[in-house]
């Protein structure tokens, strides 16, 4: 690829010769990252993996709220409308142009096929037009890598709980770009349970942030909801029984003519989810002897979950890491970070890159 700085008139500082700084800058790796796997159209510019120069997120949440969840067709149409502006804004805010980019990273799975295809096609077009290498990124890998952005000292190996709307994975991060899933949900993802319970208690979509907020007014010990264990694996999760228990509780209140205390139900449900996520994660920390533990994904922005993990990791003597909430929910900066490490490992995708809705981690 052409030296991106050479067209600015003999060095970036504009003085003709290359200063030491300019030489260092020349070696920097710039990633333009694109994320469109669900209902956020996002783009970011990331330097050398951990420095986020821009992180633009267009959230479609309001569009989908009236339907009580993400409508894939509507999401796709909105992505295609917004993606040019979002990518342009990411470059502008970083003070960069496409030709300055070393590589283009894009989420190619898992996620909704239509939304994924918009990001992948757009990234391929940019890569083709600019002659810039293309790197496809796994969405969950992105969530895990969000931890590197603000914790410059964090390096593998470590364990990470990824809890989002579509996934609840306990992952062993063996090295950059090397993952082993040691636990997963057998049914609903944690975020999915939050969304379904929120709908049932009349909070609407998106459920997670609403339950988080309402729970602060409720008593988490008011109702005892079950904490499911999966017999064959101490690290797997199951949330569908908990969701049913909440629905049964609501039905029985209705039949008895008892008033439902929304905040108590929210807080008690939230505590059940948090207890299970923490307990199973800490079992893995003890069994495998992890010294570092991280959380990631939309549910990782839950305030009660974060507090519980801080305390649990302190007790286990493990260092705890979590991204700021803005890097927990879907964003492109995390894809830029993951894309950087994949790029450094030599990963390049061709123009035949396709969206893979059910892509598994480590494939
Ligand atoms: O990671 P994410 O933005 O998208 C997926 O990859 O799925 O996660 C979205 C999920 C939704 O289910 C949402 O309700 C949940 O994360 N979530 C939360 C919170 N904020 C978002 N769950 C609990 N507490 C929160 N504060
Ligand atoms: Zn996500």
- Name of the top-level CATH class of the largest domain: Alpha Beta
Average pLDDT number: 93
Report the total helices: 12
The name of the CATH superfamily of the largest domain reads ATPase, nucleotide binding domain
Question: In CATH terms, what is the fold-level topology of the largest domain?
Answer: Nucleotidyltransferase, domain 5
Strand order of the largest sheet: 3-2-1-4-5
Strand content: 15-25%
**Overall shape:** globular
Bound molecules: 5'-O-[(R)-(carboxyoxy)(hydroxy)phosphoryl]adenosine, zinc ion
Unreliable spans are: 1-18
Q: What is the CATH architecture annotation of the largest domain?
A: 2-Layer Sandwich
Walk me through what this model shows.
- With 363 residues, the protein is α/β, with parallel strands linked by helices.
- It folds into two domains: 5-152 and 327-344, 2-Layer Sandwich (Nucleotidyltransferase, domain 5); 158-323, 2-Layer Sandwich (Nucleotidyltransferase, domain 5), CATH 3.30.420.
- The protein is 44% helix and 18% strand.
- The protein is built from twelve helices and ten strands.
- It has a five-stranded mixed sheet, sandwiched between helices.
- Helix 3 packs parallel to helix 4 (113-130) and helix 7 (207-215) packs across helix 9.
- The model is unreliable at 1-18 (pLDDT under 50).
- Residues 139, 143, 164, 297, 330 line the site of zinc ion.
